[in-house]
Amino acid sequence: MEDQFIELLIDLYRSAVRLGPGGNSETEQAMILAGLDRSRPLKIADIGCGTGASTILLAQKLDAEITAVDFYPEFLEELREKAEKNGVSERITALHCSMDVLPFADEQFDVIWSEGAVYNMGFEAGISAWNRFLKPGGKLAVSEITWLTAVRPQEIESYWQQEYPQIDTASAKFRVLEQNGYSPIGYFVLPVSCWNENYYRPLQDRFTSFLADHSNSSQAKEVIEAQEQEIALYQQYSSYYSYGFYAAKKVCSSPGV
Ligand code: SAH
After folding, report:
1. 3-class SS at 246?
2. Ligand 1 nearest-atom number relative to CA 53
3. DSSP letter at 106?
4. Whose Cα sits closest to atom 20 in ligand 1?
5. Contact, 45 vs 109, CB < 8 A?
6. How far is the CA of 185 from the centre of ligand 1 (A)?
7. Which ligand 1 atom sits closest to the C-alpha of 21?
8. Which atom of ligand 1 is nearest to the CA of 98?
């Protein structure tokens, strides 16, 4: 993507609580599914943390030391401010790094968390590369765009094949986990509220001021048009796809790494 386009996207998103579909109760639900509680101290990596929606909650709910990783320093700056306000900054280290070149040691973490972000590397590349950072028996909790049905209308099929060809059904995602050293624990589907109330609506509320801030430039309009297309498609086809939240346990190394 062009630099200017990325700068516009950062500006549109930086004030957002969630940079992708998700919700606090769903983050908590995933903690429970993965069997995480305060019974012991945990070392956690939150990869593609954005402005820290999940990071702050993990820090509040668990006895955790969290390394929060993102590619864009602007988002990490927001995260640092939020951590400060919530009194959890001592437990969070913000790391500016790309998720495909993480500087972590083997078996450094008890938990790898990633909401709405692994698609940047591709699901399989991400979960296989991150496997070695987990201790034996460590947990992976990752949300990933998922088909909810075996067949889909052509329009939405083509859109997602273009945007993210690795979109697939949950059964296929489980298989990828199994083939990369994980034993799946379970998954659940993010409800419509995680898309509309928590993600799209706050984003839409920002469209007018965003366009004004950028003097209605053609590039700013393009950014908004792409968002509007995605939102309209979701409203029409929400019964065919969502994010699945997957929890899995590391059972062995990933054979590919
Ligand atoms: N987990 C956050 C953000 C999800 S959006 C939330 O749920 O709100 C995806 C995030 O991945 C963005 O913050 C984006 O900056 C980050 N990202 C994109 N490419 C990345 C890369 N190569 N390495 C690390 N983070 C990346």
Report:
1. strand
2. 8
3. T
4. 71
5. yes
6. 24
7. 7
8. 23
Tell me the C-alpha to C-alpha distance, in Å, between residue 247 and each of 117, 120, 122, 173: 15, 19, 17, 11
List, for residues 153-199, the tens digit of each pLDDT value. 999 999 999 999 999 999 999 999 999 999 999 999 999 999 999 99
**pTM of full prediction above 0.90:** yes
Q: Residue 1 — very low, low, confident or very high, per pLDDT cuts 50/70/90?
A: low
Give distance in angstroms: CA of 105 to centre of ligand 1. Answer: 21
Radius of gyration of the chain (CA): 18
Could you tell me the pLDDT band of residue 255, with boundaries at 50, 70 and 90?
A: confident
Interval between CA 70 and ligand 1 midpoint (Å): 6
Q: Which two tokens stand for residue 35?
A: 């069997």
Which atom from ligand 1 is nearest to the alpha carbon of 99? Answer: 23
**Residue 117 Cα: closest atom of ligand 1:** 9
Cα 46 to Cα 42: distance, rounded to the nearest angstrom: 12
pLDDT band at 8 (very low <50, low <70, confident <90, very high): very high
- pLDDT value at 257 more than 70: no
Tens-place pLDDT, residues 113-165: 999 999 999 999 999 999 999 999 999 999 999 999 999 999 999 999 999 99
Write the DSSP string, 110-159: EEEEESS-GGGT-HHHHHHHHGGGEEEEEEEEEEEEEESSSS--HHHHHH
Tokens 């913000």, residue located: 94
Ligand 1 center–CA 141 separation, angstroms? 15
Ligand 1 pocket (Cβ < 6 Å) reads 18-20, 22, 48-50, 53-54, 69-72, 75, 98-99, 115-117, 120
**Pairing assessment for the beta strands 109-114 and 42-47 based on DSSP bridges:** parallel
Match 């929890």 to its residue by tokens.
247
